[in-house]
Design goal:
Layout lengths: L3 E7 L6 E7 L4 E7 L6 E8 L5 E7 L4
Antiparallel strand pairs: 1-2, 3-4, 4-5
Length: 64
């Protein structure tokens, strides 16, 4: 069963809160997504816990 949830995150560049969709059927994810406000690349890391809830960390793409 695939479950997608909306998660609010804060852009590490402009500080705006944006909403992303997280696929909870994948236990560990890391990808780049552009901010919907300033269009700069955010490095997003997602981990799904034992209860199926996502934990999301966001950093600047140039911090990597």
């Amino acid at each position: 069963m695939q479950r997608t949830v909306a998660v609010g995150i804060q852009c590490p560049y402009c500080g705006e809160t944006v909403e992303i969709s997280v696929d909870c059927s994948v236990e560990h994810q890391r990808y780049i997504e552009d901010c919907q406000v300033c269009c700069r690349p955010m490095d997003i890391t997602v981990a799904i816990d034992g209860d199926g809830e996502p934990s999301v960390a966001v950093s600047r793409d140039d911090d990597v």
